[in-house]
């Protein structure tokens, strides 16, 4: 048994210590908002926050997370920044297919938590590891600026 703090609650999971967090979330904890994309930390679809930092769940073993706080897309909107990001995403109709968007929102929230007035270059750098097959990058950038404005 491994105890993980998921979205503010300690959960005991009967899993192997080397299981990637993505599969612990999806298959054991039944939290399916975090998506599988590439399995190699290249696309960003599986992005979650570990102690506030964007982290790729597909390559992070659960043993590294004991004693840390994991936040997923299911709870990111409970915070001021995450709520602003989600509202901006809806307002600007960012989503097309939607598959990558939980990872995009998690990365954008981490960016705005540390930088409330990001430039386009800041946004591009923070979001560069998150791939959108529908190419909604212009709307993603606009939504991050919109959320920053809401937070100002």
UniProtKB/TrEMBL annotation:
It comes from the Bacteria. One of its GO terms (molecular function) is 2 iron, 2 sulfur cluster binding. Pfam families: Fer2 (PF00111), Fer2_2 (PF01799). Keywords: 2Fe-2S, Iron, Iron-sulfur, Metal-binding, Oxidoreductase. The keyword Metal-binding applies. The keyword Oxidoreductase applies. Residues 1-76 form the 2Fe-2S ferredoxin-type domain. InterPro entries: 2Fe-2S-bd (IPR002888), 2Fe-2S-bd_dom_sf (IPR036884), 2Fe-2S_ferredoxin-like_sf (IPR036010), 2Fe-2S_ferredoxin-type (IPR001041), 2Fe2S_fd_BS (IPR006058), Beta-grasp_dom_sf (IPR012675), Diverse_Oxidoreductases (IPR051452). This is (2Fe-2S)-binding protein. It comes from Pseudomonas tohonis.
